[in-house]
Amino acid sequence: MESGIKKEKFQPKSGQTDYTNARWAPTVNCVLENRGKILIVRRSLEMDFYPGLWSGIAGFLDDGKSLEEKALEELEEELGIRKEDIEKIEFGEVFDQDEPKYKKTWVVHPVLVRAKKAEVRLDWEAQNFKWIDPKDVKNFDLIPGFGNALEKLLNKIK
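The structure corresponding to this sequence follows.
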């Protein structure tokens, strides 16, 4: 499912922190769930970090927004999922994910988002998506830490 939307060069907005070259970077990783299936997206080859790998919907916590506000912003931007499309949001335990390849430690905030529907619209950040059973996630080439984020949320998935 090609999005056809081109990548824009990141330009921090007023009040936004650029973590592109920072050693520690706080992130949100959203696991979208609908009827017991979770959504994984294959990251665009144009992504700076982990191009071509599978993940949830992720983004930097780079402004003053709350974790819930940031999750909602990422879901709308990357999938076209709006607040009214969401049944419930739950948070998992925060963890650090060291990444020597990028000389970074991601401070990952896992978020489970129960969607009312399974329809999504990809932006340029993902080139494909699949709704899968959570136990099948091991069959995909995942970004480091996504399995851990999912594990922190599994007890919340019905």
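The longest helix spans residues 67-79.
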